[in-house]
Write a structure and sequence with these properties.
Layout (H helix, E strand, L loop, with lengths): L1 H7 L5 E3 L4 H6 L5 E2 L1 H9 L4 H6 L1 E3 L2 E5 L2 E5 L1 H5 L3 E3 L2 H14 L3 E3 L5 E4 L7 E6 L2 E6 L3 E3 L17 E17 L8 E4 L5 E7 L2 E8 L10 H12 L11 E16 L2 E2 L2 E3 L5 E2 L7 H21 L4 H28 L7 H16 L1 H12 L7
Parallel strand pairs: 1-7, 4-13, 11-18
Antiparallel strand pairs: 2-6, 3-6, 4-5, 8-9, 9-10, 12-15, 12-16, 13-14, 14-15, 16-19, 17-18
Bound molecules: 3,4-dihydroxybenzoic acid.
């Protein structure tokens, strides 16, 4: 997305990717685009397939032990979200970048970053058995939580804020037609479960489990039994089962490294921050970061002013911390915390009942879920 936005501003870039194109396009990740993200993609000319195939959701449902309550986003905020898989966004971006003649290199070997604190940083890249050197003005570290960019910053520069939760999600993709129009986030005494979808034929479901659990211990039967136990509703609705196409377990953490810049290296997305998944914010924050970064670089090249670049990290962090709060809050509200004292379990239930019964409380959830507005850089 950053490379595409830079291209629209007449700025050239090289994209290095460790994996193959097929791997990137098949990798199942998040699926909810904020109103703000859809606007960014549309304004960048990437709304075509998104507008045809994306599923418009005007609300979500919250569940408490089988009783459902709808949070009507559109009625409360005038906005909605769009369900469109991250890998679909990635496919659209790769196709568009290649059609525009981008220097997009898949299956790169080891990459090292050099002279980041000088005015002409460069990268050494192992590729096709040889090594290339790429010289540039700026390097954007968009290489995820486990990437090399953040690690290339000397010790003591970044302040790290981290919280690890005693929770994980087991996620599946199932060949079953969704039978609910909207997502259902269910708090249940057996643990949290989420009913989501990807298309008119595919459901996406998640179960709270313990971090470090082995997926091999979760047979398809066990997964469906647990999903049925947690998601079945008192009005008789239960999830439709189907062939499980993909399954995996993801641990949960909140993480922020600040600032997002050191010398000529600018971090974006998961390279700088991770949110737990319950607020559906990860992909959306990454899109907002690169929107700010493209704007900062556009001003640098076309206005000759480095002010935008100075504002990049603070602008991202203001948004990131609001999303951190929202993702932490959704996580705390919806999961079962086995070790929590009875007081906290009662308090949690009261809070959920409050959100399900108060219009102002539901509006606060809705406003954050559909995406807070972007600020001017
Ligand atoms: C999905 C993922 C989320 O983290 C979430 O909060 C809602 C939906 C999904 O993958 O569909």
């Amino acid at each position: 997305m950053l490379s595409h936005l830079l291209h629209l501003a007449g700025i050239s870039s090289t994209v290095l990717e460790a994996r193959s194109r097929a791997y990137c396009e098949a990798r199942v990740r998040a699926g909810v685009l904020e109103h703000t993200s859809v606007e960014l993609l549309r304004c960048a000319g990437l709304g075509g397939r998104l507008d045809r195939e994306g599923l418009r959701h005007d609300g979500i449902e919250l569940g408490l032990d089988g009783e459902r309550h709808r949070i009507p986003f559109h009625e409360l905020t005038g906005k909605h979200v769009t369900v469109y898989g991250q890998q679909e966004v990635v496919k659209d971006l790769i196709a568009r970048r290649l059609a525009d003649g981008a220097d997009l290199r898949f299956e790169c070997g080891a990459v090292s970053l050099q002279d980041l604190d000088g005015s002409r940083p460069w990268m050494r890249v192992q590729h096709d058995g040889g090594a290339d050197e790429i010289r540039c003005d700026y390097i954007a570290g968009c290489d995820g939580f486990h990437g090399i960019s953040r690690a290339a910053i000397p010790a003591g520069v970044l302040t790290i804020h981290e919280r690890i939760y005693p929770l994980a999600w087991l996620g599946i993709l199932a060949e079953a037609a969704p039978t609910r129009a909207e997502l259902l986030y269910m708090h249940h005494r057996r643990g949290f479960a989420l009913y989501s979808m990807r298309s008119p034929r595919i459901t996406r479901l998640y179960l709270q489990c313990r971090p470090g659990e082995d997926i091999a211990e979760w047979s398809d039967d066990r997964i469906w039994t647990e999903l049925q136990a947690r998601l079945s509703c008192t009005d008789g609705w239960r999830p439709t089962e189907g062939r499980i196409l993909q399954k995996g377990i993801t641990g949960m953490r909140s993480f922020v490294a600040e600032p997002l810049q050191w010398g000529r290296l600018l971090l974006a997305g998961d390279a700088a921050h991770i949110v737990p998944p319950a607020g559906a914010k990860g992909m959306n924050l990454a899109l907002a970061d690169v929107h700010y970064l493209a704007e900062a670089l556009r001003r640098f090249y076309h206005g000759g002013d480095g002010e935008g670049l100075k504002r990049y990290s603070p602008a991202c962090l203001r948004r990131v911390w609001k999303a951190q709060h929202f993702a932490w809050w959704m996580t705390s509200l919806l999961h079962r915390f086995e070790a929590a004292p009875a007081f906290d379990q009662k308090r949690q239930r009261a809070e959920l009942e409050y959100v399900m019964s108060s219009r102002p409380a539901a509006t606060a959830l809705a406003e954050n879920y559909v995406g807070l507005p972007l600020e001017a850089l």
